[in-house]
Amino acid sequence: MKAIVAVSQDWGIGKDNQLLFSIPEDLKFFREKTRGNVIIVGRKTLESFPGGRPLPNRTNIVLTSDRKYECEGADIVHSTEELICLLSERKYDRDKVFVAGGGSVYSELLLFTDVVYVTKVFAEKEADTYFPNLDEYEDWEIASSSEDREFEGIRFRFETYVKQKQ
Question: What is the CATH number of domain 2-163?
């Protein structure tokens, strides 16, 4: 399983259920990586999508503790165990499954993730949601890193973290 995220300098990812940054090249990167694949998101993340609807051209799976939650066009699961069973039953290729937010879903599924695509934004913004700082984990290392890029004065780069086999 993979994850995809954009983070600030202190690994912040959002505030008030909104992304911290809207960088067109990052949004394009997200679309290209996830299109035609499976994305796993929490309820609040799905509700932050345009129109509060599942993203098109992807299989959307929502991980939520709300047992009454329903969403047309998305599969709903209520636990990690239920999620793993669904992925197994449908025989999804692990390389085509992306965890895409929010903070609690990333934290819960990091154990099952072996690649994380991180857009590192070299700026700080107030955040209330964070991604685990992979630079502090011994079993994660940067496998590739793009050149620095810039959008409207904000510097960023794409980095791929890979979990090391123990």
Answer: 3.40.430.10
